[in-house]
């Protein structure tokens, strides 16, 4: 028996129709029909089909793990990271490769630092002995006005740096399970995995955090102490960004 046949049989055994399953899960009827015919393309691919299967299994009382394992045997997708599967389906952009530092640049910087280490003691020695130091490559008079040359005026007010509040995000699975990918502002992966029904994950950061939720209708969000509720529908993939003291950005 194929995976699609197993899904159909589990639905029939529970007494549900396609329309009833669609009404409870908000998964489109044509997607449910395609999955029962072993066609997962309309579901958005294997990454999203897993979430649909678990949601359906929860309603009809079937073994979700067994059905997902059967799907993995059928498709050949075994425990691949969620972020890879989402990237393949264009749900999220691949992480940018950080530029490499050139050894030539490093050698120039090192040479400049060494030159300063040699020049500064010499200039200090000249000033201490009363001998004026020679300035190489500089004009005898600055073209800038006195205020700009000195860098401050008598009316300058000191700038006091203020520390921004810390970002706090809590995600709780209340209507099934979901796959979750979290990256920071530099594109570094913070979390990549599954949140089971009833489980909760918390994230804190002092900068931007990006979230990809594979089953938006299964979870609720609390951002900076504010309850945002369910971010989407069952089976829907959403991408969100949060920052300290700011609301969600799609």
SSE topology sketch:
Blueprint: H1 3-14, H2 18-25, H3 29-36, H4 46-60, H5 64-75, H6 82-88, H7 103-129, H8 146-150, E1 167-173, E2 178-184, E3 189-195, E4 200-205, E5 209-213, E6 219-223, E7 226-229, E8 238-242
Q: In words, what does this structure look like?
A:
This protein is α+β, with helices and mostly antiparallel strands. Among the domains are: 3-79, 434 Repressor (Amino-terminal Domain), CATH 1.10.260; 167-242, Immunoglobulin-like (Sandwich), CATH 2.60.40. The chain is 38% helix and 18% strand. It is built from 8 helices and 8 strands. The protein has helices spanning 3-14, 18-25, 29-36, 46-60, 64-75, 82-88, 103-129, 146-150, and strands at 167-173, 178-184, 189-195, 200-205, 209-213, 219-223, 226-229, 238-242. The strands form 2 sheets. The chain has a 4-stranded antiparallel β-sheet with strand order 4-1-6-7, with no helix packed on it. Strand 6 and strand 7 form a beta hairpin. Helix 1 packs parallel to helix 4 (46-60) and helix 4 runs antiparallel to helix 5 (64-75). The longest helix is centred in the middle third of the chain and has 27 residues, at 103-129. It is elongated. Mean pLDDT is 76; it is low at 131-164.
Structural class: alpha+beta
Helical amount: 25-40%
Largest sheet report: 4 strands, antiparallel
Kindly report the spatial arrangement of strands forming the biggest sheet: 4-1-6-7
Shape verdict: elongated
* pLDDT < 50 stretches: 131-164
What's the total number of strands?
8
The CATH architecture of the domain at 3-79 is: Orthogonal Bundle
Q: Measured on Cα atoms, how large is the radius of gyration?
A: 30 Å
Secondary-structure element order, N to C: HHHHHHHHEEEEEEEE
CATH homologous superfamily designation of the domain at 3-79: lambda repressor-like DNA-binding domains
- Strand % is 15-25%
CATH class category label of the domain at 3-79: Mainly Alpha
């Amino acid at each position: 028996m194929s995976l699609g046949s197993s899904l159909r049989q589990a639905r029939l055994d529970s007494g549900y129709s396609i329309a009833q399953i669609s009404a409870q899960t908000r998964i489109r009827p044509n997607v449910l029909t395609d999955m029962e015919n072993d066609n997962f393309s309309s579901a958005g691919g294997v990454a999203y089909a897993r979430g649909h299967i678990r949601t359906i299994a929860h309603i009809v009382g079937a073994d979700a793990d067994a059905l997902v394992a059967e799907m993995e045997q059928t498709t050949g997708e075994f425990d691949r990271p969620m972020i890879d599967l989402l990237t393949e389906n264009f749900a999220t952009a691949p992480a940018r490769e950080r530029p490499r530092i050139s050894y030539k640049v490093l050698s120039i910087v090192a040479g400049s630092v060494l030159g300063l280490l040699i020049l500064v003691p010499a200039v200090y020695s000249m000033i201490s002995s009363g001998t004026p130091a020679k300035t190489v490559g500089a004009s005898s008079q600055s073209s800038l006005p006195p205020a700009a040359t000195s860098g401050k005026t008598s009316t300058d007010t000191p700038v006091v740096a203020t520390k921004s509040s810390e970002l706090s995000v809590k995600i709780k699975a209340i209507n099934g399970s979901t796959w979750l990918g979290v990256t920071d502002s530099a594109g570094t992966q913070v979390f990549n995995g599954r949140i089971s029904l009833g489980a909760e994950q918390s994230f804190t950061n002092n900068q931007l955090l990006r979230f990809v939720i594979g089953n938006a209708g299964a979870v609720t969000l609390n951002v900076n102490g504010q309850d945002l509720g369910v971010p989407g529908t069952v089976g829907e993939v959403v991408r969100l960004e949060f920052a300290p003291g700011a609301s969600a950005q799609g």
